[in-house]
Amino acid sequence: MSTSLKRTPLFDLYKESGGKTIDFGGWDLPVQFSSIKEEHEAVRTKAGLFDVSHMGEVDVRGTGSLAYLQKMMTNDISKLKDNEALYTAMCYEDGGTVDDLLVYRLKEDHYLLVINASNIDKDVAWLEEHKENDVQVTNISPKIAQLAIQGPKAEEILQKLTSADLSSISFFHFQNDVRLKDVSALVSRTGYTGEDGFEIYCQAEHAQTIWKDLLTEGKNEGLVPCGLGARDTLRFEAKLALYGQELSSTISPIEAGIGFAVKPQKETSFIGQQVLKEQKEHGAPRKLVGIEMTERGIPRNGYPVFVQDKKIGFVTTGTQSPTLKKNVGYVLIEKEYAAIGQEVEVEIRGKKIKAEIVKSPFYKRK
After folding, report:
1. Confidence (pTM)
2. Which of 95, 160, 291, 305 has the lowest tally of Cβ within 10 angstroms?
3. Could you tell me whether strands 174-180 and 110-115 are parallel, antiparallel, or unpaired per DSSP bridges?
4. CA-CA distance, 151 to 230, in Å (whole number)?
């Protein structure tokens, strides 16, 4: 593996757990430790531990922070109270997506943005370009590590490391300065798997300690280290958007099905507001829907989708669902063809294979 790839603070521990790494957007990251299916199953039934330290973190502070973030973000940041998080998007004037991200309110005039790894440089440049005088924007990504513990037993396992009452942290809330044995971290009840769980933000030098402690304490509960492969199949089944597939500079949040994170009626105008307001009120020209293959074949990212001989869109993500044991995918297609039960064809290696539009997401936690 080329040494030019970036590595997280946990890289040296991957081999101890059998991690197989790949080049993921310039990062040397584990695709799996045991197998994607085993890790997927562990998160759905017990718990899995992910290294997501490649994600970006941006510190935003200053007296103008709220007004600035209201201008930059599609969601209504004014609704946030201390220790609350919000999912949002940043958009271009034409409604295309700069990124989807989380905004954490640490206190008044102080926020933490968590952005996608592949977009760190682009996002920071975009934020800097639109910065106001009374706002400081600082990329703190190199100093911060991020771990995610996800699954039905996540709380039980993480609770062994802390005296803080984790049950008091509700969904999309967080607690700062949580002591995990001898290490301090920000612990949020968020995730990217469709399961309950926590994301842990700590200083980079403390990541190995937390990783080892969690795997030790969680061993009897079935906690396993998980790679990018299971992270993708888990988020896919739960219909959680992935930037570069469901979202991009040419795909709006409305088209991608995250319209709940777009608030065109909020008092402060934001970049892309006019286009997104129009799409929200009258419908976007394209819609993201689920398909199930009715003939043999797996839909993959970028494969064209047809009705008869008319190309109507393309596959954003597709795989064999580990939970459903079916070949399924998400397609971004012209809205007039988006009804459940509509038959479509996916072109796979030059051959058109039949599929049907079905209800999604493919998995919802009970």
Report:
1. 0.97
2. 160
3. unpaired
4. 12
3-state secondary structure of 3: coil
Give the separation between CA 179 and CA 176, rounded to whole angstroms. Answer: 9
Report yes or no: 259 and 250 within 8 Å, Cβ to Cβ: no
Cβ atoms of 140 and 59 within 8 Å: the answer is: yes
Q: What are phi and psi of 145, to 5 degrees?
A: -110, 155
Task: Tell me the two tokens of residue 110.
Answer: 């102080």
Token pair, residue 54, equals 């490649």
**What tens digit of pLDDT does each residue of 273-303 get?**
999 999 999 999 999 999 999 999 999 999 9
What is the predicted pLDDT for the residue at 246? 98
Strand, coil or helix: 207: helix
Domains of the chain (ranges, CATH numbers): 11-54+143-237 (3.30.1360.120), 285-358 (2.40.30.110)
Beta bridge partners of 225: 49
Closest CA to 364 of 313, 299, 288, 290: 290
Q: What is the DSSP string of 299-354?
A: --TT-EEEETTEEEEEEEEEEE-TTT-SEEEEEEEEGGG-STT-EEEEEETTEEEE
**3-41 burial, b if ≥16 CB within 10 A, otherwise e?**
eebbbbbbbebbeebebebeebeebbbbbbbbebeebbb
For residue 161, the one-letter residue type is L
